Amino acid sequence: MLEALKLANTYPFDFDPKQSFIQQASDWIADVFYERLPEAGFELRDEQIYMAFQLERAYSEKQTIFAEAGVGTGKTLVYLLYAINYARYTRKPAIIACADESLIEQLVKPEGDIAKLARHLDLTIDARLGKSMDQYICLNKLEDARGGIEDAEAYGSIYASLPDFVHNPATMQAFYPYGNRKDYPELTDEQWKAIGWDVFQDCLVCSRRHRCGQTLSREHYRKAADIIICSHDFYMEHVWTYEARKREGQLPLLPEHSSVVFDEGHLLETAAQKALTYKLKHSVFESIITRLLNGEIRESLAVTIDEAIEQSEHLFRLLESSSRAIAGSERREVVMSDQLLKEVNRFGAVLAAIEEELVFESGLFTLDAYQLTIVEEHLEMLQLALNLFKRPSGLISWIEQEQEGITLVIMPKLVKEILKERVFSKNMPIVFSSATMSVSGSFDYMSASLGIRQALSFSVASPYDYERQMSAAVAAIGGQEKKLKLALARLQQSQGRALILFPSKEELLRFKLDIAAIPDFAAFRFLFEGTAEISHLIDAFQSDEASVLCAVTLWEGLDIPGPSLSHVMMWSLPFPPQDPVFTAKRRDAAAPFETVDMPYMLLRLKQGLGRLIRRSEDSGLITIMGNELADERVLDQVNRILPEGVRPELLSV
Ligand code: SF4
Fold first, then answer.
1. 232 is a domain residue
2. For residue 626, is it left (φ>0), alpha (ψ between -120 and 50) or beta?
3. What gap in Å lies between CA 13 and CA 22, rounded to an integer?
4. Whole domain around residue 114: which residue ranges?
5. Furthest C-alpha separation in the chain
6. Is the pLDDT of residue 130 over 80?
7. Where is the signal peptide (predicted)?
8. Whether 81 and 143 share a structural domain
9. Ligand 1 pocket residues where CB is under 6 Å
10. Which of 84, 397, 496, 615 has the fewest CB atoms inside 10 Å of its own CB, making it the most exposed?
């Protein structure tokens, strides 16, 4: 291990401290693309050399850069080389943030880009995964699940397979990370939900914290010398919780880092909104506030706490009755009323009274200081969230209903101010990498939505011959029966070997149900997202060439070269859902269809198209279905985003 770290910290070239480091690193990187990789059998790509020169400026001036590069340009190799060298120079790792959890595994797979660099450049690269908290088992939830009715046996054997130090705290052996979602590929997403960490777990005061896989994994990835790979969501969670964690005496989720690469950077705004979201639940408030009752407190405080619990219960009941279902969404819309506003104010006032009481109480030193800090943090967060909730113009809120009660979700509409202050004002190179970021050749839309004042940018087209490699067909159909018929014919044409992309989980589940009743579909092996851990499904799809992978979240980033992926089928046009987030965006837009729905759909569709051709030897089919294609304007826009030279065939059933 020590040896690996030592090697990882060595520059891959002879460094002269009297000269600029970036200049010397750039010369070495140019040599890699001109000489070393071509000698190892890689194509010499002008696009990579051009990109390398662009990144040199971003790294030497510590600037933000939009690096828009089409599929097959080899952009990952370029940014990895800069990120690694700069990490070694500054002695701080680089962060590579991918669009989601399934993509972070792809960078470190044996045939992935990091392994390629290590092999061909004879480098030892210390890259570690910083997975999100929900990717780890929560020992408390596992305990409950073992005692439950459903799948108790499966959870029992997971419990039995945990390392000894989990069961026996006195064991004198080294702790190591465990309990990662990937270690349980056979569990469905539903089963995993019963044991995986969720936002309502209170790790701060958990007695199992030091033996928990999540905590141990954090200790592991924090020590990476070169690269930490995480998701956008996780990076944003780090940004958002940074100050609070420090106040609570905890380490931030990620260590100090030297640069950040946002892969699929066009998706960052959504991740930021998600991380800045408040989730309020009555049971969580009750369990946190009642901690104060464990100490010797004055009666007036005890009475106010009881009052607050009662008011919280009342408010959540009112929220539930004031909400209404949204067609096609599991989220419920909150209907604001004077009564609701009055109850929110009343709750805020009781919380303020507790805060005041706590000022007195802390002077008496009767409460545990640590518990007090946690309660104060929670009250502060609640007051912030309630104040936001009272001003609906700046936020999007909804209710999620679960068995154990409702959750009020409050999400800010704009995140640019916070991003500007906490991310883009840092003196650090930040790379946005994606095939689709500019709108009509300009990056202004991205800069404005993320609060970036100044950035470098460039665009490089894909080197592939799409006219020869891609054959596309579109069908203006919407009925399930017709779509199934067409899907079957197209799957027979490609002999399986297809990725079917669905805009929603509901559409995927309906497809799964329907094909089970049609014998002809039995000729194919289908793999469905949600039935097992995602990277396990991707591996199975890649190794069983004729199989068909059905997914909702793989419109972006999936990289499967070769015949296993010879056909990409879009089951429907990926218009945004009818949920509170998009309803709010539509409400604020003068022409919602043109400025919200169409751009989102086209961007997603373009990303989906990008899954097919991953190298110059690849070729295959594209099938796009959707009743909206009967509208000439939609069809015209869809045709325009197809790569140059690709003329779609119009199919009918
Ligand atoms: S530390 Fe958090 S995730 Fe781990 S067992 Fe405790 S509550 Fe669960």
1. no
2. left
3. 12
4. 2-126+417-460
5. 80
6. yes
7. none
8. no
9. 138-140, 197, 201, 203, 206, 208-209, 212, 214-215
10. 615
Strand 278-281, strand 405-412: pairing: antiparallel
In this structure, the answer to whether residues 385 and 341 fall within a common structural domain is yes
CA of residue 210 to ligand 1 center, whole Å: 9
Residue whose CA is at the smallest distance from ligand 1 atom 8 = 138
Centre of ligand 1 from the C-alpha of residue 215, in Å: 8
Q: Would 270 be classed as within a structural domain?
A: no
Q: How far is the CA of 131 from the centre of ligand 1 (A)?
A: 15
Phi, psi of 5 (to 5 degrees): -65, -40
List Cβ neighbours of 62 (8 Å cut-off, separation of 6 or more). Answer: 427, 428, 429
Taking only the tens place, the pLDDT of each residue in 26-47 is: 999 999 999 999 999 888 888 8
Is 503 strand, coil or helix? coil
Best of 133, 134, 137, 138 to mutate for ligand 1, by most ligand atoms within 8 A of CB?
Answer: 138
Instruction: Calculate the alpha carbon distances from 277 to 393, 408, 420 in Å.
Output: 15, 10, 17
pLDDT digits (tens, 9 = 90+) for 212-264: 999 999 999 999 999 999 999 999 999 988 988 888 788 999 999 999 999 99
pLDDT mean across residues, the chain:
90
597 and 481 in one domain? yes
Whether residues 493 and 636 share a domain: the answer is yes
Which of 195, 223, 251 is the last residue in one of the domains?
223
Q: Is residue 350 classed as helix, strand or coil in its secondary structure?
A: helix
> 438 and 507 in one domain?
no
Task: State the CATH number of the domain containing residue 94.
Answer: 3.40.50
Angle between helices 113-121 and 101-108 (to 10 degrees): 20
Q: What is the DSSP string of 120-161?
A: HHT----EEE---GGGBB-HHHHHHHHHSSTTHHHHHHHHHT
Please tell me the predicted confidence (pLDDT) of residue 3.
46
User: In a mutational test of the pocket of ligand 1, which residue from 212, 215, 218, 248 has the highest number of ligand atoms less than 8 Å from its CB?
Assistant: 212
In a domain, residue 257? The reply is no
Final residue in a domain of this structure, among 412, 447, 481: 412
Q: SS3 of 620, please?
A: strand
Enter the pTM of the model.
0.82
Ligand 1, closest atom to CA 137? 3
- 66 forms beta bridges with 432, 457
The CA-to-CA distance between both ends of the chain, in Å, stands at 61
Q: How many domains is the chain partitioned into structurally?
A: 4
Q: Are residue 307 and residue 360 in the same domain, yes or no?
A: yes
Residue 253 lies in a domain: no
Ligand 1 centroid vs 533 CA: distance in angstroms?
A: 21
- Does residue 645 share a domain with residue 531? yes
Are 406 and 444 part of one and the same domain? no
Both tokens assigned to 289:
């506030």
Three-state secondary structure call for residue 115: helix
- Which DSSP category does 196 fall into? B
Q: Return left, alpha or beta for 366; rule: phi > 0 is left, psi -120 to 50 is alpha, else beta.
A: alpha
